[in-house]
């Protein structure tokens, strides 16, 4: 029996005992070694070349598959969102309530201090997008400005007060404050979809495949890679006393185009490329930008007044030193008093 024929015989047989299998393979190897060293056979190179071709093809398929996976991973990383439309949270009542929850959670598990969102960064995300360069950032800014009229039309000239009540989570990885009323969620969803359409019409890769669920995140494990090695899940019992707590209302007044990666502002809020104001703000209460502008004007007026006073005092001293009319009048007045 030839080596190749014996190989086919072994491959086609179905032994029922493991020992028989090993014995058969062992005999086959001995015959092959014998034929290689003693009896030259034209069938052996055929078997060898068949194995070589098989392994080469397998290596090629594995390499191609790995290259495709690397390309997909690279593309996925390049397309990850790096900008978003933010609804900033500015109501002190909401921020104080969230800070109270954060403090209690940290007291129970100090490791979670690394997972906390600082009060200056609190916001609701309406839309995420990937902007590859400054040119696309400029396009996104124009899309944001153009979306103002569409959002105003949805609001119909009225302001939208958003109530926040209760706490929920995403797979115990992200903890957030919920909206109290479903119609608020529906209104924000409509605004988000409208803006998404405007951005996409301008060629901006905006939006996600999953359903939009507006929420106010204040704690997430992904903030710290080191923390995720220690804590796999956030225990809901840490904040169970606040699961139905009312945090307050936030008026939809401003929407910002923010960067996820650029350096944050001194107050902790994200780097903002552009903003639009929508709806009506309650009363005549100034927003943060108006307060900053007013403060600058007060400082400028105070500095100007101080400079004018300094110049007047300096001019008066110079006149007294140079024998100016001011000095002469004072001397004359002094002589009259002596008489």
The string of secondary-structure elements, in order, is HHHEHEHEEHEEHEEEHH
Cα distance spanning the termini = 152 Å
- Large-scale geometry: elongated
Oligomer: single chain
Biggest β-sheet description:
5 strands, antiparallel
What is the helical fraction, as a range of percent? Answer: 40-55%
Report strand %. 15-25%
User: Taking strands numbered 1, 2, ... along the chain, how are they ordered across the largest sheet?
Assistant: 5-2-1-8-9
Unreliable parts: 324-339
Summed up, the helix count is 9
The class by helix and strand makeup works out as: alpha+beta
- The average pLDDT score comes to 79
CA gyration radius, whole angstroms? 38 Å
Beta-strand segment tally: 9
What would a concise description of this structure say?
The protein is an alpha+beta fold and about 350 residues long.
Tell me what you see in this structure.
The protein has 339 residues and is an alpha+beta fold. The chain is 53% helix and 17% strand. The chain has 9 helices and 9 strands. The strands form 2 sheets. The chain has a 5-stranded antiparallel sheet with strand order 5-2-1-8-9, with helices on one face. Strands 6-4-3-7 form a 4-stranded antiparallel sheet, sandwiched between helices. α1 runs antiparallel to α2 and α5 packs across α6. The C terminus is likely disordered.
